[in-house]
Amino acid sequence: MTAALHAVPDDFGAAAPFPLAGTEVLADASGALILPACGALIVSDLHLEKGSAFAQRGQFLPPYDTADALARLEALIAVWRPEIVVSLGDSFHDGAACARLSPADAARIRAVTASVRRFVWVEGNHDPAPPVNLGGEVAAELALDGLVLRHLPAPGPARGEVCGHLHPVARVRAAGRSVRRRCFASDGQRLVMPAFGAYAGGLNVCDPAFAQVFGRTPDAWIAGPRRVWPVSARHLCGD
Amino acid sequence: MLARPASDPSSGLPEPFASWFAACGWAPRRHQMELLSHAQAGRHVLLTAPTGGGKTLAGFLPSLIDIAAQGGGKSRPHRLHTIYISPLKALAVDVRRNLMAPAEEMGLDVRIETRTGDTPPSRRTRQRAHPPDILLTTPEQLALLVASENGQGFFGDLKAVVLDEIHALAPSKRGDLLSLGLSAIHKYAPAARRVGLSATVRDPALYARWLVPQSPEEENMAELVKGDPGAPPHVDVLVSEERVPWAGHTGAHTMAELYQQIRRAGVTLVFVNTRAQAELTFQWLWQINDDNLPIALHHGSLAVEQRRKVEAAMIAGKLRAVVATSTLDMGIDWGDVDLVIQLGAPKGSSRLLQRIGRANHRLDEPSRALLVPYNRFEALECDAAREAVEEGALDGEDPKAGSLDVLAQHVVGRAIGDPFLPEELFAEIRSSAPYADLTREAFDRVLEFAATGGYALRSYDRFRRLVTGKDGRYRIRNADFAARHRLNVGAIVEAPMVSVRLAGRGGRAGRKLGEIEEWFIEHLSPGDTFVFAGEVLEFVGLQETDALVNRSAAENPKVPSYEGGKFPLTTYLAARVRARISSGDWRGLPAQVCEWLEIQRLRSIIPQPDQMLVETFPRANRFYLAAYPFEGRLAHQTLGMLLTRRLDRAGLHPLGFVATEYALAVHGLRDMSGVDLQALFDEDMLGDDLDAWLEETPLMKRTFRNCAVIAGLIERRFPGMEKSGRQVTFSSDLIYDVLRRHEPDHILLQAAWQDAGSGLLDIRRLSDLLARIRGNIVHADLDRLSPLAVPLMVEIGRESVHGDAAEAILASVSEDLIEEATRIDAPAA
Fold first, then answer.
1. How far apart are CA B280 and CA B781, in angstroms?
2. Where are the domains of chain A?
3. Which of B331, B445, B495, B657 has the most CB atoms within 10 Å of its CB?
4. pLDDT for residue B523
5. Class of A12-237 in CATH
6. Which residues contact B233 (CB under 8 A, 6 or more apart)?
7. How far apart are CA B546 and CA B516, in angstroms?
C-alpha cells in the first residue's frame, strides 16, 4: 500500500491514517495529506504573499509568511520524499502576488517544484491562473488514486473528492477550557483540507458552509503540533 | 465642588468670585488660593487633596478668573483657554454640570463644552472651528485632536491643562498616550501651564515630574500643593460571628451580617472586586431582603441605560444600597452615602481610600467604612489595609517608562496632524516624562515601524505608510490611511465582548441586558445557566455577536467568572501582611485567625519578615512543596510555571501547581524535601526557563495582541466594517508565531516583553521577590500539611493543568475514535 513512497517515516505519530472513500490516506500534523499508494503529498491554501497584500494597504504584517510556508513544505518533502506534490489552489493570495515575491522566495519555489517528479498547481479562486515561470504544471483538477482533487467543493454529493477553500478549524471544549485549531474535515466520503498558509484564517466546521458540503457537520482530524487528533462531530462546537 | 464655610470674608479673590463665595457662605480654602497664586505666576501645580476638598474648583478657579478678566461681554471672541482631561467620559459630563452652576450664578460669559466619544460629529466639527473656552475631554479625544491638521490654530491660545484623577491615568498606557498628546500641545502653546489633581498618589514627586514638560538638561517638577487632611475615616474590619472560611472568594457566610449593616445605615455602597462577586452578592442580598429594601447593582458589563438608571436613582436618594465594582470608584458625586462596605480584600490602601471617599463627600465629617474579609488570609490583608489607612500611608502604581506601542500610534498621528522632521519629533517626544529617556535608536526603530513595519527584510519599503517629501518631513501617505488611523486611536484594548440579549420570538434577538466577555460564553453550552444583570439566565445560543438567553428559575446557576478582577495585591499591603504574620503580635485580629496562626507556629514555622517560608509535606499519595511569597496571584502563577519546569528537569515529576494571592504549591509523585531550595529559587530562572515558557503561554500572545492593536499592526476596525474581536485574536496569534520564528528582536516583540514585565505576568514583581529571598529561604519539612497550607489544598483541583493542557483536552475527546473509525469505514448508503 505504501509501495510508491520512497520512504515512509518511522514516526507515524505525526500522521493519522484513515480510509477516504475506499482510499487509504494519511493526515499529517502539518496539515498535509499523503496518498501513500501513489506517493502524493497534498497541501492547500498556501496564500503566499498574504503579508505583502496587507502591507500594500498599510498593514505591515511580518513579511515572512511566504518563507515560513515554503520552509514547512520543504521539510515535508524531505521527510516524505513524495513523487507528486499538489498545491490545491489559492497557492497565491491574489493575482499580483507573484509580482511581489522576493527574488529569494521565487528561487526557492522553483527549487521546490524541481525537487519532485511532478508538481501540480491546482487553480483556485484567489489564483485562477497560477504562474508558469515557477515550475510545475497547472491543472483545473486532478484525479489520483481514485480520488478527485480540486480547489472548490463541487455542489452536491461528490464521493472521493479532496478540496480546499474553506480553511476548516475545529473547536473542542473540555474541563472549562477550549482549543481551536486547524483540521481536516471529512465524513469518510470527501475531505476538506486545512489551510497551509502562515496567516490563513479559519472557518469553524460547525458553520453551515460545511453542512452544505457534507450534509452534516463533518468529523475533524485536528492538526498538530506533534500529532493528529481525530474527533467526532458530536464533540465539536461552534465559535 | 464645596469649599469650607466662610470664617474670613476678605477672601483675596477678585469680583464676581469674592461675592459669589460670600453669597454661598464660603471662603476659599488655603490650597485653592495657593494653586491660584502659582497659576497666576504661570507655574505647573500638582494638587493632592482628600476627596471632598474642593479639588476640581481649585483646578478651574484660575482659568475662570482669567477668562472673566478678559471682559468684552458677549462680543468677546471665544478661544480655547483650558483643556480638562478626565479618565472617564461620565466624569467630564459631571464636572461640566458642577462648573456650569457657579459660572451661571456669577454671570460669567464662558463656554464650557465636553468632547467625548459620544459627542456628535457635527458638534466636534464646530468645536474645531470655534473652540469653547473650556473643553472637557478624555486622553483618546486629545490624541485625535493632535492627529488633526492645524494644531497651531486650535491649540495656539491655550493657557491651561487640568488633569483630573491623575493617579488613574499616569501609570497606564492611557497615561502614555496622554503624556504624548501633551508634548504635542506643548509645541503649539509652550506657555500653557498644567494642573494635576489627585486624592491618592503614593509618591507625589514622581507625579510632579510626570506632569510637566521635561528637558534634556534638567529634571522639571511641578509645584506641590497639598490640601488639608480631612477628618480621618473610621475603618473597621468585620469580625464575623460565623466561621471564617479557609479559602474562597464568595463571602456567603457574611451575607446576614452584611444585610443588617445595610438595614442600619441610611445609604450604603457595597464594593466588590469582580463582577462575578457583584452578581452573587446581589443575588444573595435579595434572597434575604425581607424588608424589600431598594438595593441595586452596578458594574461595567451592564447595559448603559441600566447603569444610568441606577445612577439617577442613587442621586435622587431612592436607593438604600448599591452593589458595585470599580465603576463607581471615581470622582463622581453620588450624593449622601453613609457607609462604604468593601467585600473581600481591598488590595491597596490608595484603592481603599478612593472607595471610602465615596462616603460622605464632606471633608469635615469622617467617612465610615467596613471591610469584610472572605477568608483568613484576607482577614490579615483587611487588617493591614485598616492600619495603612490609619497611618495615612498610600500605595499604588508609580508612573513608568512609556510603552513603545503607544509611541508608534502617536508617531503616525503626528504624521497626519503635522508633518515632522525626525529630530524635531524626537525632541518633542522626549519632553514627555515617560519618554524622557527614550534613546534615538529606539525612536528610529519605532519611526521605521510606523513607516514600513520596521522589518529587517525591508521588503515593505515600497508600501510606505509614512512618506517623506523634498522637505524631509514625514507625512501620512494618503487620506485613507489617516482615516483608518483615527479609527484605531486609543490605548485600551477591550477583551472581545458579546451582547447578552433576551431571545425574542422566533429566535430573534430581543432586549439587550449588557455585555460579557466572549471567552466566558465560549465555555457555555446551550442550556447552561448563569447569573447576569442580577438575574439567572439560560444560555440559548450564539447569534453573530449576540448571546441569546432566556430567564431561568434554575436553583444552581453557573457563576460568571469574568476577567478584570485579577489585580494582585500591591507590594505595600503584601509587605504589611508579611510583617504582621512574622511579628507574632496578632492582637486585634479575629480569634479564629489568631488560633490559625498559633497552630502554624506550633506545627511549622512563622517566618521572619525578610524570610520566605517553604514547606514540604506528603498528603494522600502526593508530595507537596508550598511557598509563601505574598506577591499576588500573577507573580505566583509565573513562579509556579517556572518552578514546575525546573522540578521536572530535576526528575521530580511535578504534576501541577496552584497559585493564590498569598502562596503557591507544587504537587507531584516524588518527595521534594531534598531539593536544593536556594538553587530552585535562583534568579537564573528568569533566563532560559522564562523564555521557554513565554514561547507557549497564551498570556504572552494576549499581551502581544494588545501591543499589535495599539501599535496599528492589527486594526480594530475599518471604516464601515467592524472586525470582530475573535478574528483579531486569531490572526494576531499567527503573526506572533511567525514573528517569533523569523525576527525575534522585532520592536513589537520588545514592546510585548516590556508589558509582560509589569502586566499579565508580573515578572518585575517576581524578579524583586527572587532578589529579596536570596539566602533567606526557611524550610519546614513536615509530616503533614500546615494550617497556612490548607487554603492552598482547597484550590487543588481548580488548578491550571501542567504541561500541554490543549493536548490533554484533545486527547480526552479523541479516545472514542476507534468506534468512530468503524462508523466512517461503513459503505456509503
1. 40
2. 12-237
3. B657
4. 62
5. alpha beta
6. B353, B356, B359, B366, B367, B368, B369, B389
7. 10
pLDDT over 60 at B798, yes or no: no
Kindly report the length of chain A. 239
Gap between the Cα atoms of B311 and B314, Å rounded: 5
Q: E strands, B152-241, where?
A: 160-163, 193-198, 223-226, 234-237
What CATH number has the domain bearing residue B157? 3.40.50.300
CA separation for the pair B85, B92 (Å, rounded): 8
Q: Are strands B509-517 and A141-144 parallel, antiparallel or unpaired?
A: unpaired
Query: Which residues of chain B does A59 touch, with a Cβ-Cβ cutoff of 8 Å?
Result: 712-715
Burial class of B478 by CB neighbour count within 10 A (0 to 12, 13 to 18, 19+): exposed
Confidence (pLDDT) at B46: 97
Contact criterion met (CB < 8 Å) for B525 and A237: yes
Model pLDDT for residues B233-285, shown as the tens digit of each residue: 889 998 877 777 776 666 777 889 999 999 998 899 999 887 878 888 998 89
- Nearest-neighbour CA in chain B from A187: distance (Å): 7
- Reported pTM: 0.86
Number of domains in chain B: 5
Helix or strand run (H / E) with residue B809 = helix B805-814
Rg from Cα positions in chain B: 28
Between the alpha carbon of residue A75 and those of residues A81, A114, A194, B741, the distances in Å are 10, 15, 18, 15
Kindly list the residues from chain B whose CB atom is less than 8 angstroms away from the CB atom of residue A178: 522-523, 809
Is residue B396, in this structure, part of any structural domain at all? no
Name the helix (H) or strand (E) containing A25: strand A23-28
> Is B329 in contact with B245 (CB distance < 8 Å)?
no
Name the strand (E) or helix (H) holding A103: helix A103-114
H or E segment to which residue B144 belongs = helix B139-146
Alpha-carbon torsion (B15, B16, B17, B22), positive or negative: positive
Q: Which domain holds residue B78?
A: 17-226
**For B145, phi and psi rounded to 5 degrees?**
-65, -40
Integer Cα distance of A162 and A185 in angstroms: 10
Q: Both B417 and B378 in a single domain?
A: no
Cα A187–Cα A226–Cα B686 angle in degrees, nearest 5: 140
Same domain, B245 and B305: yes
- Residue B504 phi/psi, 5-degree rounding, is -90, -165
What CA–CA distance (Å, rounded) separates B823 from A188? 9
| H or E segment to which residue B532 belongs | strand B529-532
Q: Among residues 123-182 of chain A, which lie with CB inside 8 Å of chain B?
A: 159, 171-180
For residue A102, the chain B residues in CB contact (below 8 A) are 457, 459
Interface of B with A in 737-756 (CB under 8 A): 737-739, 741-743, 746
* CA B511, chain centre distance (Å): 30
Q: Does A216 touch chain B (CB under 8 A)?
A: no
Question: For chain B, percent helix, then strand, then coil, each to nearest 5?
Answer: 45, 15, 40
